[in-house]
Amino acid sequence: MSEALSARSRELLESARVGHLATADQYARPHVVPIVFVYEHPFVFTPIDAKPKSVEDWHDLRRIKNIETNGRASVLVDVYDEDWSKCAWVRADGVADILVKGDDHRRALDLLAAKYRQYEGMPLRDAPVIRVRIEHVSQWHG
Q1: Cis peptide bond N-terminal to 123, omega within 30
Q2: CA distances from 27 to 12, 22, 30, 110 (A)
Q3: Homologous superfamily (CATH) for 7-141
Q4: What are the CA-CA distances from residue 34 to residues 27, 46, 48, 68, 83 (Å)?
């Protein structure tokens, strides 16, 4: 990772409940979606869970197709407050891949289930997981 995470950025990545995943297709057209995620250095993991999607087959999701053709991804996590001294953001840029089996896949699912109680009622089972290996971090704190 080219820039070290500050303590505040690390805490933000570890505690935030929502982030945004940005991917781009082979023509560099951006696509951004809100995500649930977990951070475990040097990775960010986000599942393709059972929440309703715009397509029936997860392979047809634009973020998946973008990762398969481009592979570059960014995860943005931010905090906004009317008191701007409390605002903060961290962006983790890297290379994404899709996990569907194996030890890393199972570890990611376990971390996600531990962070989000909602998965007790919507088990992840063998949900695919997007893994972003962080190569560069940008961060700002008010």
Answers
A1: no
A2: 32, 14, 9, 35
A3: Electron Transport, Fmn-binding Protein; Chain A (2.30.110.10)
A4: 22, 10, 12, 19, 24
Residue 79: how many CB atoms within 10 A of its CB? 15
Its pTM stands at 0.95
87, 71 Cβ separation under 8 angstroms = no
Q: Per-residue pLDDT for 124 more than 80?
A: yes
Per the document, the length of the chain is 142
Q: Are 21 and 33 in contact (CB under 8 A)?
A: yes
pLDDT at 2: 60
CA 127 → CA 22, 58, 112, 136, distances in Å?
A: 20, 10, 11, 27
Q: Give the start-to-end residue ranges of the domains of the chain.
A: 7-141
Asked if the model's pLDDT at residue 108 lies above 80, the reply is: yes
The tokens describing 75, both together, are: 């995860």
Q: Give the tokens for residue 30.
A: 């951006």
